[in-house]
Write a structure and sequence with these properties.
56 residues, mainly alpha
Length: 56
């Protein structure tokens, strides 16, 4: 790759791809964090229900 081809690079497109890529990474991180919180909540609910069943 020579210096001339870098000058012809469309930096707006590069910025757009970087923003979209960053958004996808952030979305994936948020999705996984929310799933972990939901799993913890579900496990607490199941444990509570199990304790209620054993108390009867």
């Amino acid at each position: 790759m020579d210096a001339g081809s870098l000058a012809n690079l469309d930096w707006g497109a590069v910025a757009l791809v970087a923003i979209i890529g960053g958004g996808l990474v952030w979305g994936l991180f948020f999705f996984l964090r929310q799933n972990r919180e939901d799993l913890d909540s579900l496990q607490e609910t199941l444990a509570s229900d199990r304790d209620d069943e054993e108390a009867r």
